[in-house]
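Q: Please design a sequence for this.
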């Protein structure tokens, strides 16, 4: 196996949890390969051609994993393809203070475009609300969770003054969100929709993966790939995405609120990973500095 992860620092489960989850589920962990670590530790199991997503076994993460499995299984029953369905078997799996979900391994090549992302989102937003309980969107939960974890460390990754600023900013944005009216209305949303969260089905369709944030909330949450942000996507690509979806979110004055919430939310994974990954710590400091100074020209980079 490759690249062990230390849960005591990153907050993400490591190889012991992976082995135990595979034992319970009946999968083969031999030659498992770590694909990435952000909000989850994600492994490929070559022998079974499965992908395992591991998260800390907190009550919040267990609820999210359960919702993720229920939502994607329900979406698999709908007439048009939207989501990758989980692997057959009892899920989620609770093992060694971790929660795990298992998924078929599907190709991501050739790489999807932002316009490809618009197709499953348009189909998703046309569906009714699922006939079972789905949590409502609560902005910045993962950031609050990551800050709580960081405060418990002997050497926190976030300086005290930065932490105070982040918490104040997060609470302010959450308060504004609670009083905002959204033109597209509420429905089932993915809440982390970007082209890296697409895989190709056997029939060639692109399917959404990584449904940990699935919830009921404003449909605009899934259109954030079409707004200017610190990753500086080409304007033509963003415009193509919004055109393919059929709604120009930039014509709505409230789009900057969702941009600000999403950029703050994205810090959570870097707070978790900073003690084990110097590149994540460097990127975290860069992002916090750009947010605090209001430097919209600063370019952010995703750390694998």
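A: Design:
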């Amino acid at each position: 196996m490759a690249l062990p992860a230390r849960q005591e620092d990153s907050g993400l489960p490591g190889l012991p949890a992976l082995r135990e989850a595979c034992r319970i589920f009946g999968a083969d962990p031999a030659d498992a390969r770590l694909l990435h670590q952000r909000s989850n530790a994600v492994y490929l199991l070559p022998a079974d051609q499965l992908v395992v997503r591991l998260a800390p076994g907190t009550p919040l993460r267990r609820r999210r994993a359960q919702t993720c499995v229920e939502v994607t299984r329900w979406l698999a029953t709908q007439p048009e393809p939207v989501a990758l369905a989980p692997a057959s078997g009892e899920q989620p799996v609770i093992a060694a203070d971790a929660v795990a979900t298992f998924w078929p391994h599907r190709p991501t090549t050739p790489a999807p475009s932002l316009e490809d992302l618009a197709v499953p989102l348009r189909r998703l937003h046309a569906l009714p609300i699922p006939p079972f309980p789905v949590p409502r969107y609560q902005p910045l939960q993962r950031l609050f969770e990551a800050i709580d974890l960081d405060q418990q460390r002997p050497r926190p990754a976030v300086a005290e003054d930065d932490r105070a600023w982040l918490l104040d900013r997060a609470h302010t944005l959450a308060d504004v969100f609670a009083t905002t009216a959204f033109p597209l209305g509420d429905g089932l949303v993915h809440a982390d929709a970007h082209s890296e969260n697409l895989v190709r089905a056997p029939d060639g369709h692109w399917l959404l993966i990584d449904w940990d944030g699935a919830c009921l909330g404003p449909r605009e949450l899934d259109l954030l790939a079409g707004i200017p942000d610190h990753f500086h996507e080409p304007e033509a690509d963003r415009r193509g995405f919004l055109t393919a979806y059929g709604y120009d979110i930039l014509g709505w004055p409230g789009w900057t609120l969702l941009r600000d919430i999403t950029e703050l939310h994205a810090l959570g994974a870097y707070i978790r990973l900073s003690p084990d990954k110097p590149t994540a710590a460097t990127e975290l400091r860069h992002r916090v500095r750009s947010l605090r100074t209001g430097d919209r020209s600063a370019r952010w980079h995703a750390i694998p």
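Q: Thanks. Anything notable?
A: The chain is about 40% helix and 15% strand. The two ends are 18 Å apart (CA to CA).
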